[in-house]
UniProtKB/TrEMBL annotation:
Residues 4-50 form the Zinc finger Ogr/Delta-type domain. It holds the Pfam family Ogr_Delta. This is Ogr/Delta-like zinc finger family protein. It comes from Azonexus hydrophilus.
Length: 91
């Protein structure tokens, strides 16, 4: 991920980060331009799902992006599988 300084436009570096929630991190960013030296806090949020996880964590919900192929409605004759239990592996 490339982060740029909101003041001078130079590349910035994330110095530290901490988890606020399973879908939110707070990061301390610092401008690499020594003449600017701006330091700020940024938040990184998991906002939309493009491809669903094959190992979903209970309690974590990240909505599907409308453009995600997974958001397309299934065929009318196709059954939906419950994902509570893993599928059996072929022999």
């Amino acid at each position: 991920m490339r982060l740029t300084c909101p003041h001078c436009g130079s590349i910035a570096t994330i110095r530290t980060s901490k988890e606020l929630a399973s879908t939110v991190r707070e990061a301390k960013a610092q401008c690499n331009n020594v003449e600017c030296a701006h330091t700020w806090i940024a938040r990184i949020v998991a906002e939309r799902t493009i491809a669903p996880s094959m190992q979903p964590k209970p309690g974590v919900y990240i909505p599907l992006s409308p453009r995600s192929p997974a958001a397309a409605s299934p065929a009318k004759n196709q059954m939906e599988l419950g994902m509570e239990f893993p599928l059996p592996r072929p022999g």
